[in-house]
Amino acid sequence: MSATFTISLDEFLLRRTTFAAQMQNNSVAIIFANTEVTRSNDTEYHFCQDKNFFYLTGFNEPDGILVIAKVKGEVSTTLFSLPKDPHHEVWHGRRLGQALATESLGVDACFSVDDIDTHMPDILNGMHAVYYSFSGNQGVAAKIQGWLDDVRVRARQGFVAPTALLDAKPIIHEQRLIKSSQEIAVMQAASEISGKAHQRAMTACKTFQFEYQIEAEMLHEFAINGARFAAYNSIVAGGDNGNILHYTANDMALKQGDLLLIDAGAELNGYAADITRTFPVNGTFTDPQKTIYNLVLAAQQLAIDAIKPGASFAELNTKVNTFLTHGLVDLGILQGDLQTLLDENMVKKYFIHGLGHWLGLDVHDVGDYGIGEDGKQHRPFEPGMVMTIEPGIYIPLDADVDEKWRGIAIRIEDNVLVTESGCQNLTINAPKSVEDIEQLMGS
Ligand SMILES: [Mn+2]
Question: Could you tell me the pTM of the whole model?
Answer without folding.
Answer: 0.96
